[in-house]
Write a structure and sequence with these properties.
Length: 250
């Protein structure tokens, strides 16, 4: 519970808040924060989650609609912690190569973050302890087949997070990139392949709030998976190629 004290009295915004990690984060933080802006596209789910909580404001928008996204976020006048959690995964099944899948994936996973920050940066600068968290993925560490669109968007998110960390130091804005492995969510429910070390959204939310409270610039888990990904990707290609072929077959 020590990590939750970081959120006491804070105003927090969570995207993708109606399911998976976003919902687990909301359930974990709703009794800690002064105010929560819970974002999603399903109005019925959002309204149900917010019933009985005067300090929770639903923000309803589709990440594919830039105008609606930015209009909704302009209603946020104060915020301390922003957690960009919403995301989608569209697999690429080569030799079929669909540019629209890349465009949609990047809009949801990456461009929506950029478009949100355009609106939220001026608000965050008014906070005494501004903090931006991006829920990325460990797949950004290791290029694998079928994840070309998803992995590229998450790698872009990691680059954005770290570059902004250096750019925004004068404004004292903290940045955290979270790179989890497989988490039980509606997205992974659709996967038809083995998912080693998969964990619940609730357990993942505990690790995420810990990383935010410690102001980690990067945090990845579970280590048995993510360190293996990092190790493979750091190898010279001559060694990496046969290991990757074995890894993919397995």
């Amino acid at each position: 519970m020590r990590s939750l004290s970081y959120f006491n009295g804070k105003k927090v915004l969570i995207t993708g808040g109606t399911a998976g990690i976003g919902l687990a984060l909301y359930n974990r933080l709703k009794d800690q924060c002064e105010h929560i802006y819970l974002c999603g596209r399903n109005q019925e789910k959002l309204n149900k989650l917010c019933v009985g909580f005067d300090h929770v404001t639903p923000l309803i928008f589709d990440l594919l609609d830039k105008q609606k996204l930015q209009e909704s976020l302009r209603t946020v006048t104060e915020v301390d912690i922003v957690i960009f959690n919403a995301g989608d995964c569209l697999y690429i099944d080569y030799p079929s190569f669909n540019a629209e899948a890349f465009e949609k994936t990047f809009q949801i996973n990456f461009m929506s973050v950029v478009q949100s920050l355009e609106v939220l940066f001026p608000v965050l600068r008014k906070s005494k302890s501004p903090h931006i968290t991006m829920i990325s993925s460990s797949v950004a560490y290791l290029p694998i087949p079928r994840a070309e669109a998803y992995g590229s968007s998450k790698a872009a998110m990691n680059y954005l997070n770290e570059s902004l960390y250096y750019s925004c130091q004068k404004d004292n804005i903290q940045f955290t990139s979270i790179c989890p492995g497989f988490i039980e969510t509606p997205l992974t429910d659709k996967n038809d392949f083995p998912m080693p070390f998969i964990m619940s959204s609730e357990k993942a939310s505990k690790k995420i709030t810990y990383a935010i409270s410690k102001q980690k610039v990067e945090y990845h888990f579970p280590k048995k998976l993510t360190l293996y990904f990092k190790f493979l990707n750091a190898l010279p290609y001559k060694i990496k190629k046969p290991l990757m072929k074995k890894f993919i077959r397995g």
